[in-house]
Design goal:
This protein is an alpha+beta fold. Helix 1 runs parallel beside helix 2 and helix 2 packs antiparallel against helix 3. The two termini are 55 Å apart. The protein is elongated and about 145 Å long. The chain is built from 14 helices and 30 strands. A hairpin with a 6-residue loop joins strand 22 and strand 23.
Length: 565
């Protein structure tokens, strides 16, 4: 599987051709970014070891390198640069030292030789008394003029000067010859190292190669990719009861629109967009072969059919989770139990396929982190996070952060995942996604014409009005209620309590609903208008009484309507 990021493609898992391990790998001949620098691993092999790798233009699986080998290659290249830098500094210092020593030697030798030449001239003059002119006494005192040296003597001095110049040139060329010799020694060592590497490679080729072992995760991932690429199954991701396209992350609430949208993507890109560490989810509402358009009804028959096209599968079970997504009732394909929303179905599926099991209660989960969160509930001392402002405790830091942002700082804390808007509550963000980004989130009721913008509201509607699930019963009478708040209001009718008081006139009511109706009398907006005359009222009950008194010939239900926004 390949994952695209800003630094380059990563294949997980892949077979590293440098160490033979099945790990997360990169491509050898693709440019990557590391610490702000560009690097191509095949070029690094050439620069560091002089090793030209083969099959770099072949299949992707033949040119992979794991992160461990990349680290070792970086260290080797860094060490090579360090050695070359130190070698260059050493040669430069040797050149400067030799130049300084040669200049000093040449200066001292010239001085000594010039003095010796002067002495020799004088000695030659003293020894050759026969050649002394008449105007010079035996004592060496000058009578008329200074003595002159013969031309033969001056020719010797010129030859000595020429010898000194040639010695200077030869001594200056000594450091250059030493640098050339050092380079030749380095090249010889490199040739010896390359010969040793060739011998080691020949020895490795003669050795028997170990068998490649493939783990179950890789087998499951291979089977999933083969099914998605060669059939019409619909892969998807979820967040509670929302469905996400695995290719572009667009969100849907209608499974039919999800399947229609997913069919526009190329299934061969599936392996480069998902991770093999997460259990894939497939919608198997349509399981047909892409290669021959044969109608197939289940996954097992699809596997058997695809083998006839030359596609092989590993013998492994539970590679992915299968669902048949519908708008309303969702059914478990293993046991047939129905659920009204996807989150409950997936939680139920963990009982069949979850590998993370709680040791205390036996609850099943797909992921280790979810099991760890569950195990906290069995701890005697629960970790609480108190608010510093009001002292209220919360079970998580995130819940405390939302509380502080909303109640004390008055700051928005719910970020929209499609724009930079931040809202004050989950409900406002929910409306923002519908109104601003145009997400369709309407769930119609199967039994009536009502529709809701969330699955939770639809579920509450079904339980309350159609299934009539009334769990809360009054102890003083036989009445039952869906909500505990309604039961509490009803008990007030037995006790005579009037806990809901009007802040304008002081009237009290036993139920909140009665107070809300009363509050309309204080409003100047008269929503209820009579169609027979110009009379209007703030409450519906007053309009009904008006219709009975003034327009008894018409039924009250036909004589009024609500106006206003």
């Amino acid at each position: 599987m390949s994952i695209l990021n800003r630094k380059g493609p990563v294949f997980d898992p892949g077979l590293c051709r440098c160490c033979g391990g099945l790990k997360k790998c990169r491509l050898l001949n693709v440019e990557y970014e590391w610490s702000g620098q560009k690097e191509v691993y095949s070029d690094m092999f050439v620069d560091c070891f002089g090793l030209l790798l083969s099959h770099l233009d072949g299949e992707v699986t033949d040119r992979l390198i794991c992160a461990t080998c990349v680290t070792r290659l970086r260290e080797a290249c860094s060490f090579r640069r360090q050695v070359l830098c130190c070698e260059q500094k050493l040669l430069q210092t040797e050149i400067h030292v030799h130049e300084g020593e040669s200049e000093e030697k040449i200066n001292t030798e010239t001085l000594v030789k010039v003095e010796n030449n002067d002495v020799n001239v004088e000695s030659m003059i003293d020894d050759d008394n026969d050649d002394v002119p008449d105007h010079i006494d035996n004592d060496g005192d000058s009578v008329k003029s200074e003595p002159q040296i013969k031309p033969k003597k001056s020719g010797k001095l010129k030859k000595k000067k020429e010898r000194i110049k040639t010695k200077r040139k030869s001594k200056k060329s000594i450091p250059m010859r030493e640098e050339q010799l050092a380079r030749e020694e380095v090249l010889e060592k490199i040739a010896e190292m390359s010969a040793k590497l060739r011998k080691m490679e020949e020895y490795d080729e003669m050795q028997p190669k170990p068998k490649r072992t493939i783990d179950n995760d890789h087998k499951s991932f291979h089977n999933t990719i083969a099914i998605v690429e060669n059939s019409y199954v619909c892969p998807f991701d979820t967040s509670f009861s929302d469905y996400y396209c695995v290719y572009c992350r667009e969100v849907f609430t209608d499974p039919c629109k999800l399947r229609e949208h997913t069919s526009t993507h190329d299934p061969t890109t599936f392996k480069s967009t998902v991770s093999n560490k997460k259990l894939p989810q497939l919608d198997v509402m349509k399981v047909d072969c892409r290669l021959c358009n044969l109608h197939i009804d289940n996954i097992e028959n699809l596997k058997q059919h695809l083998t006839t096209h030359g596609i092989n599968f590993y013998a492994i079970n539970n590679e992915f989770l299968c669902f048949k997504l519908t708008v309303n009732n969702l059914t478990c394909l293993e046991c047939g139990v129905s659920f009204s929303f996807f989150h409950a179905l997936k939680k139920h599926m963990a009982e069949h396929f979850g590998t993370c099991i709680c040791d205390v209660c036996g609850a099943h989960y797909f992921e280790e982190r979810m099991l760890m969160l569950h195990q906290r509930s069995h701890q005697r001392i629960e970790e609480n996070y108190p608010c510093k402002e009001c002292g209220k405790t919360f079970k998580s830091k995130h819940s405390r952060y939302l509380h502080v942002a909303r109640m004390h700082k008055k700051e928005p804390a719910y970020q929209c995942n499609k724009c930079d808007e931040i809202l004050f509550s989950y409900t406002l963000r929910y409306r923002h996604m519908i109104e601003v980004h145009g997400e369709q989130r309407m769930y119609p009721c199967e039994h009536c014409e009502r529709a809701y913008d969330s699955r939770k509201s639809l579920r509450e509607h079904n339980r309350r009005f159609h299934l009539k699930i009334f769990k809360h019963q009054c102890d003083l009478c036989e009445k039952r209620f869906y909500l505990p708040s309604r039961l509490k209001e009803h008990i007030a009718t037995h006790t005579g309590e009037r806990n809901f008081r009007c802040e304008y006139c002081g009237k009290s009511y036993p139920r909140l609903r009665g107070l809300k109706v009363h509050m309309q009398s204080h409003s100047s907006d008269k929503k209820f208008k009579c169609v027979m005359c110009n009379a209007s009222f703030t409450q519906n009950v007053n309009l009904k009484n008006h219709m009975k008194r003034q327009h008894q010939s018409l039924e009250a239900e036909e004589g009024y309507h609500e106006v206003g926004p």
